[in-house]
Amino acid sequence: MNVEHEPEYDWPRPPVGGYTAEDLDRLPNLPPHTELIDGSLVMMSPQSAFHSKAMRLLENELVRVAPNRLAIFREMTITLGKRNRPEPDILAVKTSAYTGPEQTSFLPEDVLLAVEVVSPDSLVRDRNVKPKKYAGAGIPHFWRVEHDKKSGYPVVYVYRADPATRTYLLTGIHHDQLKLGVPFPIDIDLTSIYRV
Predict the structure, then answer these.
(1) Considering the chain, what percentage of its residues have pLDDT values greater than 70?
(2) N or C terminus of the chain with fewer C-beta within 10 Å?
(3) Which has the closest alpha carbon to 70: 186, 184, 193?
(4) Contact assessment for residue 118 and residue 145, using Cβ atoms and an 8 Å cutoff
(5) pLDDT at position 45, please?
(6) How far apart are CA 12 and CA 36, in angstroms?
(7) Whether residue 5 has pLDDT greater than 90
(8) Rg of the chain over CA atoms, in angstroms?
(9) What integer pLDDT is reported at residue 32 of this predicted model?
């Protein structure tokens, strides 16, 4: 029996003290959507259909209603400091922060909204680690999107930063319809997820 083996992959070896935000653009052969959290590389697992559809629905609707002063991006990193460069699923950033097609990251002061669609492997990061980092960096709005297994639709947990404590406060949990006045007027039919 002749069994073919894939060539052995040469995994990146972290330097003493961990990787830096700049390293993320220079390391060869990283899988798509690799993040840097506390100096460690975090590689994403394959997306589920729910994750992909939720991202598409929210991205399409945000592009449709965002004011001209804001641009909507999907799966771009935010450089939060030397050892943190997470990649939210969707971002609303100041249009002036876009520097061109080779750009790979934004600064937190240019980000108005970060959105994370939770996957089984990202549950702890999306519920605990990333919101703390985003709030600490001064990003004013955060949404966490989870799959309601009973209905099959997204549930959107909406947070707003308290500038005094740099922590997020939950302002609403949205089923079926996401209707908000901030960070700009938004009205999204969450039940349309499988029609996009």
Answers:
(1) 94
(2) N
(3) 184
(4) yes
(5) 86
(6) 13
(7) no
(8) 18
(9) 87
Q: Is the pLDDT of residue 38 over 80?
A: yes
| Joined tokens for residue 54 | 């939720």
CA distances from 48 to 51, 52, 53, 118, 147 (A): 5, 6, 9, 10, 11
Helices (H), 78-129: 123-124
> Rounded to an integer, what distance in angstroms lies between the CA atom of residue 5 and that of residue 165?
53
The vertex-75 CA angle with 169 and 36, nearest 5°, equals 80
**The amino acid at 69:** R
Mind giving me the DSSP string for 40-60? Answer: EEEPPPPPPHHHHHHHHHHHH
Q: Cβ distance 161 to 141 under 8 Å?
A: yes
Show the tokens assigned to 59: 């991205």
- Identify the helix (H) or strand (E) that includes residue 136: helix 130-136
